[in-house]
Amino acid sequence: MPKRRSLLKAFLSGSIAASLLSVFYPVFRFLIPPDKPEASALSVSAGSSQDLAPNTGRIFRFGSRPGLVVRRPDGSLKAYSAMCTHLDCTVQYRPDLQHIYCACHEGHYDLNGVPISGPPPRPLEEYSVQEVGGEIIVSKVS
């Protein structure tokens, strides 16, 4: 009889452990995301230059991080990291304000990436940008 009781006890303990693991493991994986390697490329394409009209902006991927390319009202191009320097929210270009805007905490940057209002403490990281054969090429400034 003690053998049967030990078997039931082991089965019940294993079931409880499996149930707890199935609940807490996904929560643990959500809270601690896997490490993503930084982009090894020093330049990327941000798409066609013809599709970016004056006074507009576009988000693109620069490795694992978002980037923002802006065609100013005068037609010149600027590119920045699209991560706000306050809490890493993604910023966007607001044509109505002609500012780069962070919607998370009302942060505003001018068209040089310099914070002009709100909580951002530092300017946006600026990238080098060129138009090559109708394509926008963005490079990290070294």
Structure notes:
There is one protein chain. The termini are far apart. The protein is elongated and about 90 Å long. The strands form 2 sheets. A 6-stranded antiparallel sheet has the order 1-10-9-4-3-2, with no helix packed on it. Helix content is 21%, strand content 36%. The chain has one helix spanning 2-31; strands spanning 43-48, 56-62, 65-71, 77-81, 92-94, 99-102, 107-109, 115-117, 126-132, 135-140. The model has no long low-confidence stretch (mean pLDDT 90). By secondary structure, the chain is an alpha+beta fold.
Summarize the structure.
The protein has 142 residues and is of the alpha+beta class. It is built from 1 helix and 10 strands; from the N terminus they run αββββββββββ. A hairpin with a 2-residue loop joins β2 and β3.
Multimer state: single chain
Number of strands: 10
The fraction of residues in strands falls at 35-45%
Shape: elongated
Radius of gyration: 24 Å
Cross-sheet strand order for the largest sheet: 1-10-9-4-3-2
Give helix and strand order, one letter per element, not per position: HEEEEEEEEEE
Give the tags:
six-stranded antiparallel beta sheet; four-stranded antiparallel beta sheet; alpha+beta; 36% strand; 142 residues; 21% helix
Question: What is the strand and helix layout of this fold?
Answer:
Blueprint: H1 2-31, E1 43-48, E2 56-62, E3 65-71, E4 77-81, E5 92-94, E6 99-102, E7 107-109, E8 115-117, E9 126-132, E10 135-140
Antiparallel strand pairs: 1-10, 2-3, 3-4, 4-9, 5-6, 6-7, 7-8, 9-10
